[in-house]
Amino acid sequence: MSDTTKGPGLLTAVREFPANVWSSIFRNPLPSNDLERASTSFTNFFLHVHPVKVDRHTLRPLYTLGLGLMSFFLFLILVVTGVLLMFYYVPSTTQAYDRMLDLRGTVAFGIFLRNMHRWSAHGMVAVVFLHMCRVFFTGSYKKPREFNWVLGVGLLLVTLFLSFTGYLLPWDQLAFWAITVGTSIAGYAPLVGKQIQFLLLGDATVGQEALLRFYVLHVAVLPLVLTLLIAIHFWRIRKDGGLSRPEASAPAQAVTVTVTAVAAPAKEKDKKKVYGLQGFVRGPFTKVGNVPDNSVFSWPNLLIAELFVFVLVVAAILVLSLMFNAPLEQPVNVMHPPNPAKAPWYFLGLQEMVSYSAFWGGVGVPGVFVLLLLLVPYIDRKPGGVGRWFASERLLANTIFLTLVLVNIMFIIIGTFFRGPNWSMVSPW
Ligand code: HEM
Fold first, then answer.
1. Are 221 and 303 in a shared domain?
2. Cα 193 to the chain's mean position, in Å?
3. Is residue 67 part of a domain?
4. What is the pTM of this model?
5. Domain check: are 30 and 109 in the same one?
6. Domain count, the chain
7. Which of 182, 236, 381, 404 lies 20 to 30 Å from 341 when distance is taken between CA atoms?
8. 302 Cβ closer than 6 Å to some ligand 1 atom
9. Ligand 1 atom 35: residue of nearest CA
10. Nearest residue CA, atom 5 of ligand 1?
11. Does residue 247 belong to any structural domain of this protein?
């Protein structure tokens, strides 16, 4: 009789070492049939956020344009490069600027790291905004996705605030005056404006207290809030039945199919077997609704699409960071404000409006706009036109939204290129 307590010999263990390590981490071999494909998505920590199967429509590049994923990957790049930058940065008004110079001059790849962080941050603001536009123009905020849209508005605001708080950290003239202008806009809010401004700055003006507050918000509080919101956002996509799609492609309403589920006569040796959701089913086919199956396995279809977007985003940021350096102006000089002092580009639309009316431009219009954004899915209750770009049923809603987007972009362009000393109109040429 063989001794079962005796395992394979040391030589076998060494020979099988790589395969054993691999199979201890990944429970399935590379899938070669549908069951294994499903099981791969199911048993992997990172993959199980995906459904086992996705609708073909979800994978159409021209539908989502990959913008939600791009936002996520930009955030990942920001976290990685941000943590590396934290090894060098000191949130002190006497050291911050020198540390920026060190990054540029003495730290290996320091400037490259800073470039990656800066361009990803600008990119994320732009891409999140575009993603919101895609969701709107395809009517994807409608039932049952109303709350995910509301979460999205929260994500947009946190993204803007994250970028804004990071803007101050280099402690150069650009940073200092942009934040001075930006926080003074907050001061125009009625009743609580000055209190909000003081809460942000920890002082009457931008100084050491503001730098510390912005730093803590930027490296700890806001990234945590964003991570949590993204997790709920992704979870909701699953719970809302995947991405929106045209009516024809949506899953059929569950119809009751009478199927007799019977337990197969258990053989003696199978008695101890435990079955999960599976059962033995007698009869032809258990599919609910008699519709053609328009879905494909997430492995490898969705994963390849995601990998493609990831490579694209990383490549774009690497190329940008090789080509352009993040700006660093003179160290802060509180006696010499640049003229004009401009807010970060994404707030230049606000600054432009503030030049017409401090209250309406800085608080009234943006406040109403954010409120309307939050209410959109609860105001527009008509079910039609979901899952298609610019569906004719949604002509009015799309036209209003597009007009507001274009006005905002126009204000940003005016503020960036056409405003000179004392906010007077100048020609950029
Ligand atoms: C950090 C910011 C954000 C991230 C990382 C993110 C990520 C994603 C991803 C990966 C998807 C699925 C794929 C895609 O549509 O590209 C998605 C879908 C969605 N997002 Fe976002 N998103 C963000 C911000 C927003 C914003 C600002 C809104 C709207 C105000 C929004 C509303 C939605 C909705 C409603 C869906 C479902 C769309 C559908 O079913 O077609 N998201 N998001």
1. yes
2. 29
3. yes
4. 0.88
5. no
6. 3
7. 404
8. no
9. 149
10. 72
11. no
Q: Are residues 34 and 143 in the same domain?
A: no
- Asked if residue 426 belongs to a domain, the reply is no
Are 208 and 100 found together in one domain? yes
Alpha carbons within 13 A on the beta-carbon side of 270: 6
Instruction: Give buried/exposed letters for 19-54 (b at 16+ CB in 10 A, else e).
Output: eeeeeeeeebeebeeeeebbbbbbebeeeeebbbbb
Q: Tell me the CA distances in angstroms from 140 to 64, 132, 235, 240, one per residue in order.
A: 11, 10, 16, 11
Task: Locate 326 and state its tokens.
Answer: 């993040």
Query: CATH number, domain at 187?
Result: 1.20.810.10
Same domain? For 105 and 32 the reply is no
Rounded Cα–Cα distance for residues 245 and 45 (Å): 27
Same domain for 81 and 210? Answer: yes
pLDDT in tens, the chain (429 residues): 455 567 788 999 999 999 999 888 887 778 888 888 888 888 888 888 899 999 999 999 999 999 999 999 999 999 999 999 999 999 999 999 999 999 999 999 999 999 999 999 999 999 999 999 999 999 999 999 999 999 999 999 999 999 999 999 999 998 999 899 889 888 888 888 899 999 999 999 999 999 999 999 999 999 999 999 999 999 999 999 999 999 865 554 444 444 444 444 555 555 555 555 555 555 555 455 555 678 999 989 999 999 999 999 999 999 999 999 999 999 999 999 988 988 889 989 988 998 998 889 888 999 999 999 999 999 999 988 999 999 999 999 999 999 999 999 999 999 999 999 989 999 888
70 lines ligand 1 (CB under 6 A): no
- Domain extent at residue 286: 252-292
Taking the CA of residue 136 as reference, the ligand 1 atom at the shortest distance is 29
User: Does residue 189 lie in a domain region?
Assistant: yes
Residues 221 and 270 in one domain: no
Type of residue at 29: P
**262 in the same domain as 224:** no
